[in-house]
Amino acid sequence: MAMHVQALFTHDAHARLLCVNEPGGGAPAPRLFLGRTRAGNLWRFRADLPELLTEALEALCVDEPVGIEFHRPPRHVAAYVRLLATHAPVHTLGMGPAYHFTAYPEPSRPLLALTATHAEILQGGFEALVTELPDWQPFLALVEEGRAVSVCRSVRITPMAHEAGVETRPDLRGKGYAQDVVAGWARVVQSLGAIPLYSTSWENTASQAVAKKLRLVPYGADFHVI
Q1: Each residue's pLDDT tens digit, 30-50
Q2: Helices in 22-142 by DSSP H: which ranges?
Q3: Could you say which DSSP state residue 138 is in?
Q4: Is the dihedral of CA 131, 193, 223, 63 positive or negative?
Q5: Which long-range contacts (CB under 8 A, 24 or more apart) does 57-60 make?
Q6: Domain 112-218: which CATH class?
């Protein structure tokens, strides 16, 4: 979980959150991040929160139970929202499972490792990802008739861990393509000496299905407030 939050967000010298971890600087990080695992919980607060507010939030985080079912919301959701609303309006609450790999199966289909020279392959469905090619590496694609139909790339990167970002063309979902590109991506990340991580939201049942097919193991669950 510590590697997960380090990959997701940049931090200041006091372990306070700054921004989403993207090349060139991303959007502001959540004001509260709570990562729950069976071994213990981890929390982070955004750097611009007043000290008295972070102290009140931390008192609630300390009181969160350990080892409960991850799909259940944290005990103090309403109190977190109430406290953060005194600082600024609460816009988004997010929750979802986080997984790690215990095996690295060979993809059942050939994959292509994309670089900045492969922009044309992303035409016809993934044009918005062309700007990601130089920085979000490794970037794996399943290609049919010269065009990518499913991709997985490292969307959050640290020297120790990479977070997966996977997308499949809407008209081709349900064919097992995502399973293959995630499997291939994880093998490449592991070969680089980093740990591949995979996380999603509770609402994204398709993403959870990919994790199940790959036999990924949930090590915890995220909760964040923006």
Answers
A1: 999 999 999 999 999 999 999
A2: 51-62, 77-85
A3: S
A4: negative
A5: 57/32, 57/83, 57/84
A6: alpha beta
Q: What are phi and psi of 148, to 5 degrees?
A: -70, 135
Distances (CA, A) of 69 to 62, 66, 94, 97, 219: 17, 9, 17, 11, 11
Q: Which of 182, 193, 191, 192 is nearest to 215 (CA)?
A: 182
Type of residue found at 180: D
Closest to 64 in 3D by CA, of 52, 77, 51: 77
Condensed to tens digits (0 to 9), the pLDDT of residues 170-202 reads: 999 999 999 999 999 999 999 999 999 999 999
**C-alpha 81: how far from chain center:** 22
Domain boundaries, the chain: 2-97, 112-218
- Rounded CA separation 142/148 (Å): 6
**So what's the pLDDT on residue 71?**
87
**Phi-psi category of residue 142: left, alpha or beta, with phi > 0 → left and psi -120 to 50 → alpha:** beta
Q: Is 194 left (phi over 0), alpha (psi -120 to 50) or beta?
A: beta
> Torsions phi, psi of 30, nearest 5?
-60, 155
CA of residue 151 relative to chain centroid, distance = 15
